[in-house]
Amino acid sequence: MSKTVVKPYGHSDKSKKEEVAEMFNNISKKYDFLNHFLSLGIDKIWRKKAIKSLGEVNPKRILDIATGTGDFAIASLKLNPTEVIGVDISQGMLDVGIEKIKKMNLESIIKLQYGDSENLPFEDNYFDGLTVGFGVRNYENLEKGLADMLRVVRSGGKIVILEFSKPKKFPVKQGYAFISKYVIPFFGKRISKDDKAYAYLPESIAAFPEGEDFTKILMNLGYKNVTARLVSGGIATIYTGIK
User: What is the dihedral of CA 101, 53, 152, 25, to 10 degrees?
Assistant: First the structure.
């Protein structure tokens, strides 16, 4: 049985990748505000925990995939890297991030550029660490993207993936279900002016192979020492693996 592909707009003549890029281009100017507003700022805490985990390998070269406006790349500076590269398929998001990094005078360390997770423009074994924040569920070909991530990380390097998940326990499960079905689409639509973008968010989370299903995919692709750590009652999960 073929899996249903969840896309933001559902156009038959466009790939998921094209629609995801279009969606983020459409909401790029409002993304940072909405991201922090809808998560009540908790997303910043999740990123800090993810970066702390990455610090175990003392990474000097870090790649941040689906970097968006660069929040994860900026957070990784706490590890004192010498080079941080952020890639994304949305030029609109990158433009916002580049401007943000300029204002923070971080251009000497952080570089944001266009990049496709399934065909990363980097040599094998280049990076010490790799991060993805809320991006893997948007991949068109999940396994291909995850495999290319592993390719560009050196032996012994670490991959940290922060992704939304579905809480299983009361009362977080019930509260999150209400927020994702009603609150996020309501405010997202009105603030971003995009009817579909924040309806796609809970739909893409529901379709994502989270938890044990996702860790099995990572292990099958060759990720070692795979872990999955729930945060905020299971609203998100931090996955890690070693090459």
Answer: -40
Mean pLDDT by 10 residues, the chain (243 residues): 74 93 94 79 92 97 98 97 98 97 97 96 98 96 97 98 90 78 78 84 91 97 98 94 98
Q: Distance between CA 139 and CA 148 in Å, rounded?
A: 12
The torsion angles phi and psi of 113, rounded to 5 degrees, stand at: -150, 160
88, with CB counted inside 10 A (0-12, 13-18, 19+), is buried
107 token code pair: 């251009």
- Could you give the CA distance from residue 134 to residue 71 in angstroms, rounded to a whole number? 11
Report DSSP state, residue 53.
Answer: H
Tokens for 150, please give them.
Answer: 């592993």
* pTM (predicted TM-score): 0.93
